[in-house]
C-alpha cells in the first residue's frame, strides 16, 4: 500500500472520530451547538471576504488586470454578504436544520408508501414492512415539520444517526488499516450511511473528474494513479463476479446504474420497455437481460457511458450460493420479445439487434414493477451480492449507484477484502488496475 493510500485510510479513521464527536455535541449541546457552529462559520466567511477585499488593493496582488481585480472583489463581497447572512440566521439554524430533516423524512415516507402501492398491486412479499416503514417515516416527517417544540428532540435523533455513521466509518477504517491477519466476514453486517442525496451524484462527480483530466491532456498512467489506489490483495477465490457502476450525461444518466457480470455474462435489471414507462419514466415493467460482458462494455462505451468495474473473488461455496439466488430470480421471469417500433429503436432494442441480448420480464416478486427510488437496479444487484458476504445493507432509505461506488471503492482498498480489482472503462481512456 502506498504512503498516500495509508494517509487516506487514516483520514477515514479521523473522519469517523469527528462524526462521533459531532453527534455527541448535537445530543448534549443541541441548539446551542448548531447556533454556535453557524455563527463561527459566518465569521469565517466574513473574514475570508475581508481578507480578499484588502488583498485586491495590495500593490503586489497577483491579479494585476482590472478584470481580474473586479472578479476578486466580487468574490470578496459575496463572502462578506454570505457570512453576514449566516451570522444573522444563526439563531434560527437549529430550526432550519430540523425543517430539512423533516422534509427528508417526509420524502422517504412518500417513497416507501409508493413502493408499498406497487408491491400491493403486484401482490409481492414484503409489502407490509414497506407500509409500516412508510407510515412511521411519513408521519414522523409531518410531526417534525409542524411542531416547533420538536427541534431539540429532532437534533438528538440526528446526533444519534450521525454517531452511527461515525461508527460505520470507524469500522471501515479499522478494516482498511488492519494487517494481513484480517479475515473476510462470512456474514453481512448492518451499515448506516449518509442520506442518499449526499451519494447519488458521486458517479457523476468522478465522471466529471475524468473529463477534466482528459481536457488537461493528463496521461492514462497519471489518471490511474489519481483515481485508482494500488493495493496488494491476498484473498483466496476466483474473480468471477464483476460489479459495473456506470454513468453518462443527462439527469438519470448522472445518477448512474448498476449491473453484475458473472463468469463473463452480464445480468441487468431495469425499466427497459419504453412502452411501459410512466410517472416521468420513474416506473415501468421490470425487465431483465443477459449478454456477454465484452459486448456489453463495447455497447456502453459507444453509448457514451463511463463504467466503473469492480471484480469480486468468490469461493466455491459463494459461487454456489450466487448461482442458487440467480436461478431463483430467473425462475420469476419469462422471455420477452421486443415488438413495437419504439421498443426496437430504444437502448434495449439496439442492443438486441446488434448483440442478440436475451431479454425477459418478471412475472412476480417485487421486481415485477421497476421503481427508480425503490425496486431498482441496485436492489436486485444487492440481493445477488449478498450471497458473497459483502455488507452493503441500509437500515431505511434508498440504495443508489453512488452508494455502491463509495462502498466498493473503499472495499477495494482493504487488503483482505474479496473486492480484488478496480477498472475504469471510458471511450477516451484506457485504464487498467495494477494486477495483484
UniProtKB/TrEMBL annotation:
Ubl conjugation is among the record's keywords: no
A Pfam family recorded for this sequence:
DUF308
* Listed transmembrane segments: 12-33, 39-58, 70-90, 96-119, 131-148, 154-171, 192-210
Keyword Amino-acid biosynthesis tagged: no
Which terms are listed as keywords in the entry? Answer: Membrane, Transmembrane, Transmembrane helix
* Cross-referenced InterPro entries: DUF308_memb
Q: Output this protein's name.
A: Membrane protein
Q: Which organism is it from?
A: Streptococcus hyointestinalis
Amino acid at each position: 500500500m502506498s504512503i498516500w493510500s495509508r494517509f487516506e485510510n487514516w483520514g477515514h479513521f479521523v473522519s469517523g472520530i469527528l462524526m462521533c464527536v459531532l453527534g455527541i455535541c448535537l445530543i448534549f449541546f443541541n441548539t446551542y451547538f448548531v447556533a454556535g457552529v453557524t455563527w463561527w462559520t459566518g465569521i469565517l466567511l466574513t473574514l475570508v471576504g475581508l481578507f480578499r477585499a484588502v488583498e485586491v488593493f495590495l500593490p503586489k496582488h497577483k491579479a494585476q488586470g482590472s478584470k481580474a481585480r473586479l472578479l476578486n472583489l466580487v468574490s470578496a463581497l459575496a463572502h462578506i454578504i454570505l457570512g453576514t447572512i449566516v451570522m444573522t440566521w444563526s439563531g434560527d439554524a437549529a430550526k432550519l436544520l430540523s425543517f430539512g430533516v423533516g422534509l427528508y423524512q417526509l420524502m422517504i415516507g412518500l417513497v416507501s408508501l409508493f413502493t408499498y402501492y406497487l408491491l400491493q398491486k403486484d401482490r409481492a412479499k414484503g409489502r407490509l414492512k414497506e407500509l409500516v416503514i412508510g407510515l412511521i417515516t411519513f408521519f414522523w416527517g409531518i410531526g417534525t415539520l409542524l411542531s416547533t417544540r420538536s427541534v431539540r428532540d429532532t437534533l438528538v435523533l440526528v446526533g444519534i444517526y450521525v454517531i452511527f455513521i461515525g461508527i460505520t466509518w470507524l469500522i471501515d477504517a479499522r478494516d482498511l488499516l488492519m494487517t494481513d491477519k484480517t479475515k473476510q466476514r462470512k456474514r453481512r453486517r448492518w451499515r448506516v450511511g449518509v442520506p442518499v442525496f449526499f451519494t447519488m451524484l458521486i458517479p457523476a462527480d468522478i465522471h466529471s473528474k475524468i473529463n477534466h483530466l482528459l481536457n488537461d491532456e493528463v496521461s492514462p498512467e497519471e489518471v490511474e494513479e489519481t483515481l485508482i489506489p494500488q493495493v496488494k490483495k491476498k484473498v483466496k477465490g476466483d474473480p468471477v463476479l464483476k460489479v459495473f457502476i456506470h454513468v453518462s450525461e443527462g439527469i438519470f444518466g448522472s445518477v448512474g446504474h448498476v449491473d453484475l457480470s458473472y463468469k463473463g455474462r452480464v445480468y441487468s435489471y431495469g425499466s427497459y420497455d419504453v412502452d411501459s414507462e410512466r410517472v416521468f419514466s420513474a416506473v415501468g415493467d421490470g425487465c431483465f437481460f443477459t449478454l456477454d460482458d465484452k459486448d456489453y462494455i463495447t455497447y456502453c462505451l459507444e453509448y457514451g457511458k463511463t463504467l466503473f468495474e469492480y471484480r469480486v473473488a468468490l469461493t466455491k461455496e459463494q459461487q454456489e450460493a450466487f448461482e442458487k439466488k440467480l436461478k431463483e430470480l430467473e425462475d420469476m421471469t419469462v422471455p420477452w420479445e421486443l415488438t413495437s417500433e419504439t421498443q426496437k429503436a430504444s437502448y434495449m432494442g439496439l442492443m438486441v439487434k446488434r448483440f442478440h441480448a436475451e431479454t425477459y420480464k418478471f412475472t412476480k416478486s417485487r421486481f415485477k414493477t421497476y421503481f427508480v427510488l425503490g425496486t431498482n437496479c441496485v436492489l436486485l444487484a444487492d440481493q445477488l451480492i449478498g450471497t458473497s458476504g459483502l455488507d452493503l445493507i441500509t437500515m431505511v432509505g434508498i440504495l443508489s449507484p453512488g452508494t455502491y461506488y463509495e462502498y466498493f471503492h473503499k472495499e477495494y482498498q482493504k487488503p483482505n477484502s474479496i473486492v480484488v480489482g478496480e477498472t475504469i472503462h471510458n471511450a477516451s481512456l484506457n485504464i487498467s488496475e495494477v494486477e495483484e
